[in-house]
Amino acid sequence: MHFRAFPPQNSGKVEKEMKYMIETDGLCKQYKRQYSVKNVSLKVRPGCVYGFLGPNGAGKSTTMKMLLGLVKPTQGSIRIFGKEILEKNRIEILKNTGSLIEAPSYYGHLNGRENLKIVQTLKRVPEKEIDEVLDIVRLEGQQNKKVKEYSLGMKQRLGLAAALLGRPKLLLLDEPTNGLDPAGIQEMRELICDLPKHYGMTVMVSSHLLSEIDQMASDVGIIHKGKLIYQGDLQKLHEKAKGSIHIHVLDPAAAVRALKEKGELYEERDGDLVFAEQGEARTAGLVAFLAGRGAQVTRVTEQQKSLEDIFLKLTGKQVSL
Q: CATH number of the domain at 22-233, please?
C-alpha cells in the first residue's frame, strides 16, 4: 500500500541557491548547571533527509524545539532559510516550516477533520489541503471519528497531516514512527523519503532507532550527551567503518596452518575465518590461496558494519538506545 501525495507546488525543485536550510553555531541549552545541548553546530542541506540520531535523553527534542523557537537557547545562533532567527522575524521565517515534536497536540472531543480545520484556519491555507493531507496519511476513512478514540498510531498520523498543511519547505519530525505498526512504519518511511524528491521539501527527522535513520536519511547528525559527535553524508559514515570478509572452509586446521605460515591476520568467529575488508582482487587471491592449500572453501560473505556498530565506535561505549 502506498501514500497518495498532494500535487507539487514548485515542480519538485529544491532551492539550490541556499547552502543550508538549517544552520546553527554553538547552540547551547543549559538547565541550572546541566547542559542538555552543548555547542551543537548543525548544517542541514536543502533537499535532504537529515537523520538526527541519538539515544533517549541525548538532546534531540531540545535541539528541535530551539529550532522552532519553543525553547530559548542559552547561547548560540540559528539560521533557517539563510536568515538568522530573531524574536522580530521568527513567525515570518517559521511559517514555511512544519513540525511534529514529541506527542502531537489535538482536541480529543473533536474529530480528525475538525482538528485539521483548526490548523488550516490558523495557517490560512486552502481548505482543499485537508483532503490532500488526510489522503497522504491514510486517515480519510477515520476523519469523522473523535480523536480521543484514535489509536496512538492514528494520532501520530494526524499530527503529521497537520504538519503537512501549508506544504512547508522544511519539515521537522521528532520520532515520527512512534506507535506505528510495521506496515505504518514502512509507509511513513516511504513518504519521508519521497518529500525531497517530489516536492522539494527538506526533512529533519530524529530517532533513537538506528535502522530507521539508516533507511531514510541521506545526511546524518549523531548527538550524544548533548554534543554532536558526527555530522555528514550517511554513505561516508558507512565508508569510515570498514566491514569484514567471512570465509567458511571444510578443513579449518589446513586453513589455519596455511594462514599462519603466510602471516595473514584473521579471527575465528562462529565457525568462519574473518578478515578485514579488502578489495575484490585481494579477496579472490586469499580464496585461491586457501583452496590451493586444501582448506576447501565453501562460502565467502562480506559483512558491513551496521550504523549501531559505527555509533558504538564513535561514542566508545555501549549506550542504552
A: 3.40.50.300
Of the candidate CATH numbers 3.30.70.790, 3.40.190.10, 3.40.50.300, 3.40.80.10, the domain formed by 242-304 belongs to 3.30.70.790
Q: 28-68 pLDDT, tens per residue?
A: 999 988 999 999 999 999 999 999 998 888 999 999 999 99
Q: Contact at 8 Å (CB) between 204 and 64?
A: yes
In sequence order, what are the beta bridge partners of 37? 29
Q: What is the pLDDT of residues 206-237, one digit of tens each?
A: 998 888 888 899 999 999 999 999 999 888 88
Q: How many CB atoms lie within 10 A of CB 235?
A: 11
Q: Is the Cβ–Cβ distance between 101 and 61 less than 8 Å? A: yes
Per-residue pLDDT for 252 more than 60?
Answer: yes
176, 140, 195: which is closest to 9 by C-alpha? 195
Unique residue bearing C-alpha cell 541521506: 218
Exposure class string for 70-93: b at 16+ Cβ within 10 A, else e? ebebeebebbbbeeebeeeeeeeb
Q: What is residue 11's predicted lDDT score, i.e. its pLDDT?
A: 41
**Buried b / exposed e along 202-226 (16+ C-beta atoms within 10 A):** bbbbbbbbbebbbbbbbbbbbbbbb
